[in-house]
Amino acid sequence: MRTRMKHTPLIIALFLLCLANSARAQQRQCDASLLSQKGDSCMSIHDTFHAMQFYLAGVNADTTNVDARRKLAACYRKTGNHQACITNLDRIPADSIGHDDMRMYYYSYLSIDSNDKAAYWGEQITKHYPYDSDIVASLASLYNTTNKPERAEQTTKAYITQCDSTNMYVNKEYAYSLYLQLKYDEAIPLYKKLIAQGADNYTSNFILGMCYDGNYDTANAQKYLEKAVEKNGNSSYCLYRLAMAEEGLVMDSLALEHFNRSLETAIPASRQLIIYTKLASLHFVHKRYAQAARAFQLVIAHDPTDKPLNYYNAAQMFLAADDITKADMYLKIFIDKADKPDADESTKKLLETARKQLNKKK
Question: Does this model's pTM top 0.85?
């Protein structure tokens, strides 16, 4: 009896301690719940900044609050902090990871170019949630752009045969995977269907044209490549492929036109001028005068303002390269273009030098 009475205060103390701990835990959960609700209110008006602060406070108040952790991860993803999103998702118990969490994992890894991990979560989603067409199309696109078109074909084909054959995003990636694998006979009817359904754009017509080209059907290749050029006349490669098809069909005037346009669009004239000027300067610094002279000729060809100085520079390079004939020609052109009543002092000095160089050769 005395022993029981002796331990009674200890038991009561432990009981009270448990009650206190339980009360504190309940209070933390209550605080976390209230903070999460405030975060939800912010999100209802798209105020991600303040919502994130409330969710973070909720997580700190109760580290076991999976709902607040999940919402915090979503906020990080919305603000572009994908690594923080992944870190918070990693703190959610594995048996609590759901569809939305998997999607956050997928898109976050995709955004930081962690393609293998993105593919892993994409595969998990398509396995457990096969009707998620957004992920199917995105995962297939990832495979197509990372040189794995056979995986893209498997992913899209499974969705098309088991879920929905009308989704254009999925069908587009399926068709592209076939094109990348050189399965032109299978890709052609799919691209025709996509075009008929409204995807009558540059990409569809270009790839369809290339499919026909791969099958040596030059007439149809020309037809669809021409349509692609109509939709985007600035694609140098498409213009080149169209010109090749036209050459094969003995449409020489069109081929010449499109070959020239292909050259013109390869690099804009303004950028070519900058490049050739820098090349000329570098060749001159390294005493490669013949190359510098050729670069200055290209500067002249691409400068719409036709600056007289370009002719002077070309002449100096040809002189240094001992090509007297061309040097004389460019000196004369320079004098003809620069000898104006309003010429500034620096130009007058160059004119004096140019005339001396010409007279020296007489």
Answer: no
